[in-house]
Design goal:
The protein has 262 residues and is of the alpha+beta class. It has one domain: Fumarylacetoacetate hydrolase, domain 2, CATH 3.90.850. It contains six helices and twelve strands. The chain starts with a helix and ends with a strand. It binds 2-oxoadipic acid and magnesium ion. The site of 2-oxoadipic acid (OOG) has 14 residues, from helix 3 and strand 5.
Length: 262
Amino acid sequence: MKLDRDTIAKLAAHLEHCELEARDTHKITDDHPDMDWDDAYAIQDAVRQRKIARGHRIVGLKAGLTSHAKMKQMGVTAPVFGYLADYFTVSEGAEVKCAELIHPKVEPEIVFVTKAALTGPGCHIGAVLAATDFIMPGIEVIDSRYRDFKFDLKSVIADNTSASRYVVGGRIQPPSEVDLRTVGVVLEKNGVPVAFGAGAAVLGHPAAAVAMLANHLGARGQEIPAGTLILSGGITEAVAVAPGDHVNLRMQGLGSVSLRFV
Ligand code: OOG
Ligand code: MG
């Protein structure tokens, strides 16, 4: 750790204010160029504690930057991990208020729900599939608090990996019913297909993203508990949205899920 506790608390407050007030900021590594990975996750954890202290619940976890399309779009090279708070949840077909967000984008994701705990190090795809209760389609709405969506890995980790809203829905299936590598996704905006992909875009197999998350937590003495909802990461590039847009995700054999932006 390079940052002291006061600095971590101050940066967490700053990033959370930006989130709650929908205003952007320059990236925090501009002022703290030698902060390390532990500092970045400590800031993310401090933001999480602020939410819990206000009575919010953590309702899921996420992996991000798990596909080459996303890494290329954002100019970074490694996956990152974050969490979902209760108020990020949007019901199927419901409205997302753009006024509450800075510059939202949507991305198609395969969502896992676990029925057994997953523990690292050494967690692998087989362990993830054995511990998965079901999978379903989800759309993540990301909204980096950084100006023009430009960041480096440490800044985006501190900013809870741009997490802001998500919707899950469609049809649920046990993982044995779906080939998670070849499952196809089509993301439509206002009825027009705008992004396409297959599950293998995420680290060769989306369960690998969940295994990485378990190993990441294992290195910190934590695990993925049973009953956890996990976004495994955008399969395609993220697509910008604006008020009036309708977004629909079709996932092969898993139905569809949609959102409206107002
Ligand atoms: C970081 C979050 C990426 C994903 O699924 O790749 C992410 C960002 O691109 O702002 O959630
Ligand atoms: Mg995502």
